[in-house]
Amino acid sequence: MLLRLALPSGSLQESTLELMRKAGFDVRATSRSYYPSIDDPEIEVVLFRAQEVSRYVEDGVMDAGLTGIDWITENGSDVVEVSELTYSKRTAKPARWVLAVPEASPIQDVKDLDGKVIATEAVNLTNKFLSEHGVSARVEFSWGSTEAKAGLVDAIVELTETGSTLKSNRLRVVAEILKTTPRLIANKAAWADEWKRRKIENIAMLLQGAMVARTQVGLKLNAPKEALDQIVKLLPALHTPTVSALSDEGWCAVETVLDEAIARELIPELKRAGAQGIIEYSLNKVIP
To answer: Which CATH class name applies to 216-282?
Structure first.
């Protein structure tokens, strides 16, 4: 059997392919092909614009896919949301759809947009937001480069990750419409198929493991037995650290997983407590 998996092209492509590699799938794409190679003969990968992925999954053209919750909502796609994955183009933070206006605009609040014109690629999201605030405005579809249209309409609704592009175009955020993160989604018929569901669940587990591993490191060290209790107390861990006897009866090997952010503070303390041979190493996946 074969699982057809849709991955996003465009801005999310490189970060998605890197996450897939960390999850254990060697996915390689070329600039001229929408069919990346993958080292799993049971998976066929196709690249689509993130805006289109949920439609193809819902229609059964693809069995599963990765796309943002924003486009699932925008398209009104009836799919199974298998897993949330918190990553974006440059950071590990959710991207945001925001309502923005030129810095000199008199518009200060959503209510000020009544009767105005707004340009965006996310027409349905924007109309829903305006309706929730009791605002009637004309929402025009934008084919991209929406920031450039800010001087031609009263406001824009655009996706931003760091806000730098908005600032460089002298735009001011009036309101946040939606925080969005990628989701692994599945076609309902594929999800009902035992083999495909197991395959999709395996992918979800490995992707989540790769997400967790981004902020974790492994730590190995040798500890003298007389200082073992003190050293173990210093170690935060997912579970109890692994302690193994060494050939030298006076020493033990200790191994654990911890947040990378605290490793630099912890390692000197471990050394002072008597640990030796301390090794910090990176991780591809951590499955709790």
So the answer is: alpha beta
